[in-house]
Amino acid sequence: PALDRFILALPKAELHLHIEGSLEPELMMALARRNRVDLPFRTVEEVRAAYQFSRLQDFLDIYYQGAAVLRTAEDFRDLGRAYFDRAAADSVRHAEIFFDPQTHTARGIPIGIVMEGLLAAVEEARVRHGITGGLILCFLRHLDEEEAFATFRAAEPWLDRLLGVGLDSSELGHPPAKFARVFAAAGAAGLKRVAHAGEEGPPAYVTEALDLLQVDRLDHGNRALESPELVARLARDAMTLTVCPLSNLKLCVVDAMDAHPIDRMLALGLRATINSDDPAYFGGYVADNYRAAAAGRGLDRAALGQLARNSFLGAFLPEADLVQHL
Ligand code: HPA
Ligand code: ZN
């Protein structure tokens, strides 16, 4: 109804989107055919039926498997194009996109293939939709820091075309501290730093992301709410949290959408934003996430407007571009 139209039309920035997580089953099947890659699924329905998760690792296993169909720069461009076309329909004006080079280099795909395909999609989105975009290179935290360094060195020729670095994959048992040196190197190279923390991991991982990785933004951050001191610090520092409601529901970070803490975050003075994380796997793009959170928690236009405003405030936009969006 009216609130849905308001949500759809609301100009937004998307700050937490894994491009490999935007691979829809239809494109997965088409690329499998194009590249002669074997999948354990025969139909789109079989793929969707497999998307039942009770924790982060259940999802990651199937997400890395799906990414195996991506082989050429054209594949990565097509993946990015599909995301930006869908984001444009949700009134996304700016998107900062995660990608996982190690998922591809481990299969023998050179990082340059990934970079060139995704950079082409970003440029195309600017021309076709007027969406500004940038890429954030994520290190896989289940691998060791030496592998992260090797990835960072391999990305050297493209560093001036990256917004920043991030940290994703299996959180528990892989604290931010493990990546302190490679994040310091990224900071010294002038890159922004973000990290997933407090999705499944404890509040101490959020503190480590702040103190040891010097993050400019926090991805998820849900479990920070368990620590009043940490909440006070995040509020005081106006730290942006990239919250992902449908992801939280699908990965059982929350039991139900009516138990989601998004409005509590705003009430605590946190700069929370709404994002889609892995929309092809979690059942919705960014406007679907706003709608689900609004329905679950009874968010009004003022709260939804604040969340959208926060998304631009939390973006890595030059001041001159930021004012255009506020
Ligand atoms: N958490 C950790 N790793 C990920 C996620 C996530 O939500 N999505 C894709 N990789
Ligand atoms: Zn994520």
Question: Which features would summarize this protein structure in a list?
Answer:
326 residues; 17 helices; binds zinc ion; alpha/beta; TIM Barrel; eight-stranded parallel beta sheet; binds hypoxanthine
SSE order and pairing:
Layout: H1 2-9, E1 12-18, H2 25-35, H3 44-49, H4 56-66, H5 73-89, E2 92-99, H6 101-105, H7 111-129, E3 132-140, H8 145-154, E4 164-168, H9 180-188, E5 192-197, H10 203-211, E6 217-220, H11 228-236, E7 240-243, H12 245-250, H13 262-267, E8 271-274, H14 279-282, H15 286-297, H16 301-313, H17 319-325
Parallel strand pairs: 1-2, 2-3, 3-4, 4-5, 5-6, 6-7, 7-8
Bound molecules: hypoxanthine and zinc ion (ZN).
Zinc ion binds next to strand 1.
Brief characterization of the structure:
With 326 residues, the protein is an alpha/beta fold.
